[in-house]
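__Record contents__

***
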Amino acid sequence: MYSVIDCEIVELPKIHNESGNITALENNNNIPFDVKRIYYLYDVPMGSERGGHGHYELQQYIVAASGSFTFVLDDGINKKEFFLNDPSKALHIKSGIWREIKNFSSGSICLVLASHEYVESDYIRDYNEFLDYKK
């Protein structure tokens, strides 16, 4: 089972020229899994929090496409915070990690690349059930 120590910020490839930057991501090339689902969070009201769940199998790459926000990761023993504000970096969240998202800046966009399609049975939505799973 993974811990928060296994979750890390990853530098994404960035091509820069005078007209701007571009970052391209490819399955099993610069992402260590096949992306099966892409979604993004936006227009999150100031002071709101998102997340509050874990996954049995799903892995994610999280990119602050715009603005900033903080991920709080929890493995049942340790917690670790990651501040994201750079679209050339991704947070790799491994399976079996509880996550909460807070401190969304105005206009922020949280881009999520997921290793699985949406399957409700992969979600752990109760923190006490999460702690039991991690034992």
